[in-house]
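pinging the channel bc i need a second pair of eyes. not urgent but kinda urgent?? the chain im working w is below, pasted from the shared doc
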Amino acid sequence: MTTAINEASSTSDAAARGVVFVAADAPVREFRLANGLKVLLVANRVAPVVTVCVLYRVGSRNEAVGHTGATHLLEHMMFKGTPSFNKNRNTQIAATLQKIGADFNATTWYDRTNYFETVPSDQLELALRLEADRMRNSLIADEDRRSEMTVVRNELERGQNEPAMVLDEAVYAVAFREHPYHHPTIGWRADVENVPTARLKAFYDTFYHPNNATLVVVGDFDEGGCLSLVENHFGAHAATPDPIPEVYTDEPAQEGERRLVVRRAGELALVQIAWHTPSVLGATSVLSNAELAERAANPPDENDIYALVVLAAAMSHGVTSRLYQALVETELAVAVQANCDQFRDPGLFNAYATVRPGVEPREVERAILSEFARAGGEGLGDEETRKATRQIVARTFYDRDGTSNVAAQISEAEAVADWRFYQTYAARVAAVSAGDVRRVARKYFTEDNRTVGYFIPKADDGGGAGANDA
């Protein structure tokens, strides 16, 4: 059994117990099991609850043509049960968690999948036992695939009825020619409908292992007791005999503007402009797992992602923001937004606008480009920059209110870098200067680096392929 382990524990004693203390930076404490499972503990005794989150380093970036959407479909199927938690025994995962009043769910994104539940403190072992069980013992049955496929397909169709989602999907598919961010997390419809169960099982057996996961526990718990439970339940699983397959496909530098138009039923025209940007750790190419871990532990002093995030806030947060003033106040658009991807691999900076009726999309495009050119020319003022950084820092801490939010934020950091990114994020944003913002605006917002997409509404005459066509 594992007892409390701290910095004073000898390496040999910790290894003998099967769990080793690795690092700490209040409030996060990192441990590692012999099978490679990374364990992050954050004590928070404000309320008698605890959140358990298991992050798997697998998302749509790990998929390929033929099984796009596999991670998301597996997310659904991993609620169907295990030999211990299943319908026949009246111990279904959802029902078991509902009986103890748990708040639970799972989400899939480009770089990760996470499963989480917030439970009463005295139910910590149940949560750990359940997550350890479905890590390796999930029932990947064809009957469940067929039923969950229809659920996922309905979700996909709902998305296809949202013009903004349709355009965003199209822009990413054009901006990324080779890297797997090209395809949406939910997958392409043909893959969702036709992927064989055997292929899903092979995908599960490839990625769902302790040495490809991080366990995050936040809340009211005893460290020694928690580590003992983690070792008992997760320590039973062996690490994979071979390394987890890596993503190695870099997106080549874009060599000229790309444009696309989506025409389908809708009410308002949309404009989306995207520019390639670095990863959250400032890398401009895909990093191996080992390279990512090294860079996360020793982050570079210069990282453009923070200045780009500040620029996004200055451009679109609030009625005094630049894009709001240039497009909404002038009645060119009814809504505008800017966002910088914070992904494991290089992503996109996107500007989105909903065009006001009677306005030409190209007029909106010109206004957007003019504002980014101005940001790279005259730049932001010091007070405008400080306002944007304050907005981001405040939102960062608002989003860390409660055990489930802290666990979610740490898991996001783990997916793209590691928990240190969570720890230092606010301080790094606060350190961004007006000169930093001007520099990145000049560097990335060039014609050759951008992709421009229009959504043009047309009358739905019943002809052609629509969002709900089977």
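so The longest strand covers residues 347-355. and The domain at 258-458 is CATH 3.30.830.10 (Cytochrome Bc1 Complex; Chain A, domain 1). — does that match what u expected or am i reading it wrong
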